[in-house]
Design a protein that fits this description.
Blueprint lengths: L1 H20 L3 H11 L3 H16 L6 E2 L1 H17 L12 H7 L7 E8 L2 H10 L1 H8 L5 E8 L5 E8 L1
Helix pairs in contact: 1-4, 6-7
Amino acid sequence: MKRRLATLVFSLCLALGAAARAEDAASLVAHYTTASLSMQELTAANLLNSDRARYGLPELTLDPALCAAARLKCEDMRDLHYFAHQSPTYGDVRQMLTGLGYAYQGAGENIAHHSTVEKCEAAFLSSPGHRRNIMSRAYTKFGVGVAFDEQGFTYLTQIFVR
């Protein structure tokens, strides 16, 4: 039931994302951030693109469907009390995206569990593997998701695709 509902929500995000891509980029941000992206997720997305810009890399495009998938991953980790790239519900990031019907050529994932979104991003940058995903020129789009555990700690997932 949970997986079916998640797939339905994700499909809706894909459809909305496709419609939004027909509009200009400013319009996409205006529509997406107000209704669907939490303030913490917006902060995480801005931190990631700010870090890329600091190193002379182009911004990645924020994709609403990838944000929905990243949020599902965070909620899954929180609800099932695990912290791993391999989800008992969705598998790894590639299996998850394929199962949700998202077309991609390559994918990567960063996950963190820390006190704030800012500390999650700092932890990503201090880890060679996570940093490599953030700084990769191979990826063109990304999504971020945030969920909070019962103590108020942040689960943050970044999903990257090309």
